[in-house]
Design goal:
6-stranded mixed β-sheet; 13 helices; 13 strands; 36% helix
Length: 334
């Protein structure tokens, strides 16, 4: 049986796509200091000296296939996370299209040809790509089959689940692009920056319990993350406990109930920024049954991170972690 996260991914990303295109918000937003979003500009930081790709190369794809890449002048990454890696390797000028989850500034002017789980083979092929980068959950399978049948190399990358995936995902993309040394450099830079953030976490007596809530108010989607939601590794690195996973939620995402929140008993709540906006900000969030009764709801202790980067586990993960730490321990740094 496929993992629940895979089965839910299409529905969740479709809802995310609606909110990113302006259909999900209600106009409310968090304004308190505890819900300050990431301070860094929504940009990636490319390596300063990426060499010319050395091609052709043959690499292993996460779907078990061998992929030969002969050119990498017209790249189509089918997720925001993969786009981020290509741009940060210094090869963004070769990217000819973007997925709706590629929200960073350098990608903003690229044509939007896919919504992750709603890939249009015709739109992708119209750009004459010489390489397509995909996630294991990218689909539908029929569209991916059409792209392959047209002779376009498709590299599938293993999914991002935690901090340990940052380096392997960067290296997989770099190897396929013929710049393995740049992959090693970017991996080291990313891991060093993550380590620096972890080292700077303020001293605290107890590990706060943090619940990851996936919210899409316009679609009435209210979920709490459990094991495999993708947030556990970040929270652990921030010196916190994933309250949903620790409370025994075996499924990746579970519908929010008063009972589930009471058992999780979070001291803080982690949300995506547009998800928070879609329920009317903090005032709307605490109206969801059970939230106001949690320690997090009573203290209005909310950690909000931009949707397009929170669970990417890529070159900007240090920024995500730094923002989580800053918001989570705001009282400890005053």
């Amino acid at each position: 049986m496929p993992r629940l996260r895979t089965r839910l991914a299409g529905a969740l990303l479709t809802v995310l796509a609606l909110t990113l295109t302006g259909c999900g918000g209600t106009g409310g937003s968090a304004t308190t200091a505890s819900a300050t979003t990431a301070a860094a500009a929504n940009r990636v930081e490319p390596l300063t000296d990426t060499p010319e790709p050395q091609l052709p190369v043959t690499v292993s794809s996460a779907d078990g296939k061998k992929v030969t890449v002969r050119e990498a002048r017209r790249i189509v990454p089918l997720s925001g996370s993969l786009s981020e890696i290509v741009f940060t390797l210094g090869l963004g000028d070769r990217v000819v299209a973007r997925d709706i989850t590629a929200t960073f500034q350098q990608a903003a002017k690229l044509p939007l040809v896919t919504r992750n789980h709603d890939v249009s083979a015709e739109s992708v092929l119209s750009l004459k790509p010489d390489l397509v980068l995909a996630e294991k959950t990218t689909g539908p399978s029929e569209a991916m089959g059409q792209i392959r049948a047209a002779g376009v190399p498709v590299l599938v990358v293993d999914p991002a689940q935690g901090l340990a995936d940052v380096g392997p995902r960067i290296q997989a993309v770099a190897d396929a692009l013929g710049v393995p040394a740049a992959g090693k450099e970017l991996t080291k830079r990313s891991e060093d920056r993550i380590a620096a953030v972890r080292k700077a976490i303020p001293a605290h007596k107890e590990r706060p319990r943090v619940a990851f809530l996936y919210l899409r108010g316009s679609a009435s989607v209210y979920l709490i993350g459990g094991k495999g939601s993708g947030a556990t590794s970040l929270l652990k690195a921030a010196g916190a406990v994933d309250a949903g996973a620790e409370s025994g939620l075996e499924q990746d995402f579970t519908a929010i109930t008063t009972e589930a929140l009471a058992k999780a008993a979070p001291d803080a709540i982690l949300v995506m920024t547009k998800g928070l906006e879609s329920v009317g900000g903090i005032d709307g969030l605490v109206k969801i049954p059970g939230v106001a009764q949690t320690p997090a709801g009573m203290d209005r202790r909310i950690v909000s991170i931009e949707d397009g980067v929170l669970l990417n586990y890529g070159p900007r993960t240090d920024q995500v972690l730094k923002s989580i730490v800053a918001q989570l321990y705001a009282d400890d740094t005053k």
